[in-house]
Specification:
By secondary structure, the protein is of the alpha/beta class. Helix content is 46%, strand content 14%. Strands 1, 2, 3, 4, 10, 15 and 16 form a seven-stranded parallel β-sheet that branches. A four-stranded antiparallel β-sheet has the order 6-5-9-11. Strands 12-14-13 form a three-stranded antiparallel β-sheet.
């Protein structure tokens, strides 16, 4: 029922704008970020998910925006966070210089992302000189604007989370050895009491501005539950001024406070500035054109740092705030959060070796881990690839472009008088069947496919605008399911043998609708399955410039308004090799 309502709403919009050139939600040059990953340990499944999610949004923005000649180069950045007490402790325990440790772990992250076909334009490391320059400049801006002061701070500190924790967010628990230990309730990590003289950031001064900004920009954080979490934190009254330095005697592995070598800049202030660094801050003359990011992806466990600290820092420095935050949930295995101690961890560096890049990208992109925890299963990775890519998409494009169904290598002409009559959005079914003598099931399938084609571009555009990549993938597979059902019931391989003119018209009608469904779905799946979608589109739509939602809207104009069918007669090719090689039973071993 919900999906039918969404299709109806999207269809109403599609009818209204069918003749208006489509423009993506952000016309700015794409600037997409992942969090930078802490190198105290190697990558896990959650890191891979965050990065694939961001990569797909970056590719989507590049694919569908209308670029201007003077636009700056698109940015997609990922990388590693390499300072802080945890890194210092891990390196000391391994008797390794901190930088050597960071070099080794960062190289593993980079190799993993390369194997997943991540299209980053900048791989940033916080140990780079350009980043130190950006952090020092940003610090001085905050000082010059009166937002940093020297003060004493005492409180519970979590080394693992690299933050002070209000006592209300701690609890005392008994350890396995029978001893009691105070922990941070959110993460379960131990905390210790710490008192020292630090530099403080006037975070409390920005609480009213933060609250107003979030209320005025209600959709800037997705999903809505994440926005509610941030607002509750801001309005809860527990936020205090933030300690933004640590004593150098305790923490040497970090960037010293400019002008005070007894203090080290707080690792989260250091890390968040990486987003400025990749935009060329502070020396890039085009920085104002690049900034701010269009999408910032993160896990919900670091939402406080990105949703409270980060915008407050930017406000204090007089810089614009990001357009969108997408905060996803955690991955589980065996219905429990992945944990090395539990032994329910799938090694991230095995993902591509075990399944291949396309299957990994498709599994994560089609799974809803935005607002809910998602379950990882090796069997499910294979099943989704086999069932949805190989069986639904692969089989359709192979059968549709076969010599049995497509005699001439051109886009079939779809005669408008064969279309069910369009009724707008005033009834439960927006197309009515006018072709006579057909079975009820065939009528129903045709109406469903037509209505889905009309609603499709606006449904997926809205989904991507608000971070719901899994919804865009779901709508693509749903559209292909309708096309498969229509193809099976129309039996075009039989119509192709007929000499009857009416049968030939029906053949062209069926193949054309399935062709358009395949083009639309592959246009949306391009950022996910990459060359696999491109190979299909190259056969069906050789002009790469048409691989956008604009092309989908133009076909809607044909369906809804009887617009000129500029695509009929265009050359195409057959798909002669199955696009997706299925996993076999022996692949599970």
């Amino acid at each position: 029922m919900y999906r039918a309502l969404r299709i109806c709403q999207a269809r109403a919009t599609a009818v209204a704008v069918a003749r208006i050139p489509h423009r993506s939600s952000s016309s700015r040059s794409p600037f997409v970020t992942t969090p930078i990953y802490y190198v105290n340990s190697t990558a896990h499944v959650g890191h891979v998910y965050s990065t694939i999610l961001a990569d797909c949004h970056y590719r989507w923005q590049k694919q569908n925006r209308i670029a201007a000649d003077d636009d700056p180069a698109p940015i997609f950045c990922t990388g590693t966070d390499e300072h802080g007490q945890k890194i210092q402790q891990v390196a000391e325990a391994a008797d390794t210089p901190p930088l050597a440790h960071c070099d080794a772990i960062s190289a593993k992250f980079k190799a993993l992302f390369d194997s997943c076909d991540i299209s980053y334009s900048d791989y940033i490391r916080t140990t780079e000189p350009r980043h130190r320059r950006a952090v020092e400049h940003f610090w001085n801006v905050l000082v010059d604007r009166g937002h940093i002061y020297k003060g004493s701070f005492a409180g519970w500190y979590s080394v693992s989370d690299e933050c002070f924790v209000p006592e209300i967010q701690t609890e005392v628990k008994e350890t396995e050895t029978g001893q009691t230990q105070r922990i941070f309730s959110e993460s379960g990590n131990p905390v210790e009491w710490l008192e020292e003289d630090n530099y403080m950031f006037r975070l409390t001064a920005f609480i009213p501005q933060l609250r107003d900004w979030y209320l005025d920009n209600a959709k800037v954080v997705q999903p809505p539950s994440a926005a509610g979490y941030i607002l509750a934190m801001i309005e809860g009254g527990d936020i205090t001024d933030l300690s933004v330095s640590r004593s150098r005697s305790r923490l040497q592995w970090g960037i010293p406070v400019p002008g005070d070598d007894t203090q080290t800049i707080y690792v989260w202030l250091d890390a968040l500035v990486n987003y400025l660094t990749v935009a060329g801050y502070p020396d890039n003359p085009d920085f104002a054109k690049q900034w701010p990011p269009t999408v910032q992806v993160m896990g919900k466990d670091i939402l406080k740092f990105h949703g409270v600290f980060w915008p407050a820092f930017l406000m204090a420095a007089g810089l614009q705030l990001p357009e969108r935050f997408f905060a996803h949930s955690h991955w589980t295995m065996g219905q429990k959060k992945m944990s090395k101690s539990r032994g329910n961890v799938y090694p991230a560096d095995r993902l591509v070796d075990d399944f291949g890049s396309v299957a990994v990208r498709y599994f994560f992109s089609s799974s809803n881990c935005l607002s809910n925890e998602a379950e990882f299963s090796a069997d499910r990775v294979r099943e989704k690839y086999n069932d949805e890519l190989a069986d639904i998409l692969g089989n359709l494009v192979m059968r549709m472009s076969s010599k049995k169904c497509l005699k001439e290598l051109v886009v079939p002409q779809m005669e408008v008088d064969l279309l069910p009559r369009f009724r707008g959005c005033d009834t439960s079914r927006q197309y009515e069947w006018t072709m006579g003598g057909e079975e009820v099931e065939l009528k129903r399938l045709t109406v469903e496919l037509l209505n889905s084609l009309v609603a499709f571009p606006d449904l997926v555009d809205e989904a991507m605008t608000y971070g719901r990549l899994h919804t865009a993938v779901y709508e693509s597979i749903s559209l292909l399911r309708y096309a498969n059902g229509l193809f099976h019931n129309f039996q075009p391989w039989k119509l192709a043998k007929s000499q009857n003119a009416a049968d030939q018209r029906k053949l062209a009608f069926c193949v054309r609708l399935c062709l358009e469904a395949s083009i639309s779905a592959c246009t949306v799946l391009r950022p996910v399955i990459l060359d696999k979608a491109d190979d299909i589109l190259t056969c069906f739509l050789p002009d790469e410039k048409q691989w956008t939602l604009q092309r989908c809207h133009q076909f809607i104009d044909v369906l809804v308004n009887g617009g000129e069918d500029r695509f009929a007669g265009q050359p195409l090719q057959r798909v002669t090799v199955p696009p997706f090689k299925k996993f076999q039973a022996e692949d599970k071993q």
